[in-house]
Specification:
single chain; alpha+beta; two-stranded antiparallel sheet; elongated
Length: about 375
């Protein structure tokens, strides 16, 4: 009779446990909540049962986690490293035995451990997904930048060929016209004719200057390369500022790294780039402002930053500023070749130019020049 009652009680407890676990399964599936746990009436806290005082143990004071679900717990004199593997590591533990006094409680703890493991794995999957999304986003940005740079390089190469042809076709007749104008000037004494001929020569000189810039853009010189101090070239470019009336209202600040290595390149071309960037900054600050020039080592590059507080460049123009003949200046104030020539020169040095700008706040041009391999 007692055996029947005992079996009946066990059967009832088993049925109750199964019903509870089934309910928990459905709840977890419905709510997508992996934190669902079986409430074990026999659960014993290891740190209370053993009167443990090792507060450095991650299980110490943990009310909502079983000690067999926490990595790095101090069990006696040894540290248990990983989470329990189907609770195999805990079978002989007094705390676990006390918490699983019958098969129903042990079944519940198996359920809890399964949910705990699923939760940990889902967290790892989410972190992996986030990492993958971040890497894909970075790769997409890099790909877009590479595509834009490639398109720009192809465009510049095509324009370079065109510029070379134009310079040749325009240069020869221009020389002949200039010679004829000078000959006529020597043969006439009429003041009005002299004035008009002088005006013609002035415009011829302007056209000649544009042609020279076209030639420099199309075929940057490879001759005259030498070991050059970037800081010295910056100082030379700054020296020209004293000849500019507009520069009188510009506050200049420099921050130059004296430990920069010399670079093997063409000094005059680099000076031309720096002059173009400085003069553009001054033009952008007609009402006054500040220009900061900074040189420093940036990994495998020597970097030169030109930061002004000028009118800034509209976002729609940022992709165009390095294109030949693009200019926002008034007619006669610029040919639109300064930045495109500078771009070609720096690219010929195996470097690059980057720009950031905000309308009303200013612009920052960054020149990157590669450091030779032995000096990296």
């Amino acid at each position: 009779m007692r055996a029947k009652l005992k079996n009946k009680a066990c059967s009832a407890e088993f049925e109750k446990t199964i019903n509870e676990l089934t309910h928990l399964f459905f709840e977890a599936e419905k709510s997508r909540n992996l934190k669902t746990r079986f409430e074990n009436p026999y659960l014993v806290k290891c740190w209370e049962k053993t009167e443990c005082t090792r507060k450095e143990c991650p299980a110490y004071g943990a009310d909502n986690l079983r000690c067999w679900q926490i990595a790095g717990t101090h069990c006696g004199e040894k540290v248990v490293g990983t989470h329990a593997r189907l609770l195999d590591d805990c079978k002989d533990c007094d705390v676990f035995k006390a918490s699983t006094q019958n098969s129903m409680a042990e079944l519940g703890e198996l359920f809890n451990n399964m949910m705990f493991t699923l939760e940990q794995q889902m967290d790892q999957i989410k972190k992996a997904e986030q990492s993958l999304e971040h890497r894909v986003a970075e790769a997409t940005i890099q790909l877009k930048e590479s595509q834009a740079q490639l398109i720009h390089q192809e465009k510049m190469a095509s324009v370079g060929l065109l510029a070379s042809g134009i310079a040749h076709e325009v240069g020869n007749p221009l020389t002949s016209i200039s010679s004829l104008v000078q000959l006529i000037q020597r043969k006439t004494e009429d003041p009005l004719s002299q004035e008009r001929l002088h005006l013609i020569r002035k415009h011829i000189d302007r056209i000649s200057e544009i042609v020279r810039e076209l030639v420099d853009f199309a075929r940057p010189s490879q001759h005259g390369a030498e070991a050059v101090s970037v800081n010295e070239v910056v100082r030379s470019a700054i020296g020209f500022l004293k000849y500019s009336k507009q520069a009188s209202d510009v506050r200049l600040k420099t921050d130059m790294d004296d430990g920069l290595p010399d670079l093997f390149l063409i000094r005059d071309q680099l000076l031309q780039v720096f002059m173009n960037l400085i003069l553009n900054a001054i033009d952008a600050m007609k009402s006054g402002g500040a220009l900061t020039i900074k040189t420093f080592r940036d990994k495998g590059w020597v970097r030169i930053d030109f930061t002004d507080t000028g009118i800034g460049i509209p976002e729609g123009n940022l992709e165009k500023i390095f294109e030949p003949f693009f200019t926002t200046k008034e007619v006669g104030q610029g040919s639109g070749l300064g930045l495109s020539v500078s771009y070609g020169i720096i690219e010929n040095f195996k470097g690059r130019i980057e720009v950031d700008s905000t309308v009303g706040k200013g612009s920052a041009f960054r020149v990157f020049l590669p450091v030779p391999e032995p000096q990296r």
